Every structure is written in structure tokens, then in C-alpha cells.
Amino acid sequence: LALYFHIGEREEKCIIEDIPSDTLVVGNYKVQRWDIHKHDFLESAPGLGMFVTVTSPSAEVLLSKLYGPQGTFSFTSYLSGEHIICFQSNSTRFAVTAGSKLRMHLDIRVGEHFLDESAIQAKDKVDEVNERLEHLIEQINHVTREQEYEREREEKFRKTSEETNSNILWWAIAQTLILISIGIWQIKSLRDFFISKKLV
Question: Which of 81, 100, 78 is nearest to 89 (CA)?
């Protein structure tokens, strides 16, 4: 997931990531500050820090740390489900001037250890093969965890669908019985009315 978004100083911005359990998540970000005079975002925002907070589906805080204007954060999920990743600048400027616009570039990688190509080039061929094998194994494990998570979600959805279908069936039967009962009662009432009026 690679994206960028605008955020005000002191404003908190959160994204939601649906992550399987036991999965490594690595995030890289860079913050740029809007320059009123140049009418453009500066290449960097020196002196500005970002609080990064990660909350699990059970509301447990997995990460809460202050980083610089650009940095890398990582965490491991313990539960499968929606994880909330929040960012907020540590601007110390006065509230009147703290509304400056920031641009945040964010790249989140889920479920793998990434290759450092420069490090691989510095190793001999055997180490390179080992590194790539470890990378492939990690990717396979990630795909397996993703499939297991999708199977769990599919099972929950199937059970919900079956329960809903069962409820609809019983409701249809109940409606039919009610309509039949009302019909019989109406026929009996009309018959009793005609007999009382000696029309039959």
C-alpha cells in the first residue's frame, strides 16, 4: 500500500488495515510542510516529528512512538482483523499558526521481509541465493496465512448466510400459517353470518 495524503499540524489521521494474525507490517513515511511563500511543499519538514500509534482489533496498543519527519516503523499482528494506524504531528507552534498543511507519503508493506538489493550485491553468490530463498519462504508463509484468514472469513460468512436463510424459511412458513389461519377464520365468519341471516 503506497499513498500520500494531506494532514493539518496537530491533526490526527488514521487508516485501517485488514491484517492476518502473526504478520509483520513495515511502514515507511516522509512528511513535507507547505511553504506559503513558494506555494509548494518543501522537500522535508525539519524539526517536525510524527507520533505513530497502532491499535489491534481488540483495542490493544501495539505501537506508540514518536518518530522524525521521515522514518520507518514496524509491528507484528497477534490477532487477525482490522488494525488502526494513526499519525499525528508533534507541532509545538502556537494554535493560531499550527494549521499549516502537511503532505505525508506513506508506504506500508504487509507480511514479508524485504530485500536490501545493495546488501545482496555485497555478498557472494551463495549468500545471495540464501537471502532470496529466505525471502521466498517468507512470502509463501505470508500467502498461507492470508489464505487461512480468508478461509476463516468465508466460513463466518457462510454460517451467517445459512442462519439468515434458515430464519427467512421459518418466517415464510409462519407467514403462510398466519394467512391460512386468517383465511379459515374469514370463511367461518362468513358462513356463520350467512347462517344467522338465513341466507344459506
Answer: 100
Q: Per the domain annotation, does 15 fall within a domain?
A: yes
Position 85 scores a pLDDT of 95
Residue 52: Cβ within 10 Å count: 19
**Domain span holding position 88:** 2-113
Q: Is 50 within the bounds of a domain?
A: yes
Q: What is the pLDDT of residues 136-177, one digit of tens each?
A: 888 888 888 888 888 888 988 888 888 888 888 898 899 999
- Strands 81-89 and 12-19, by their bridges, are antiparallel
Mean pLDDT computed over 29-37: 84
Whichever domain contains 73, its CATH number is: 2.60.120.680
Q: How far apart are CA 144 and CA 9, in angstroms?
A: 40
Domain membership of residue 189 (yes or no) is no
Please check whether residues 11 and 97 belong to one and the same domain.
yes
Alpha-carbon Rg of the chain, whole angstroms?
31
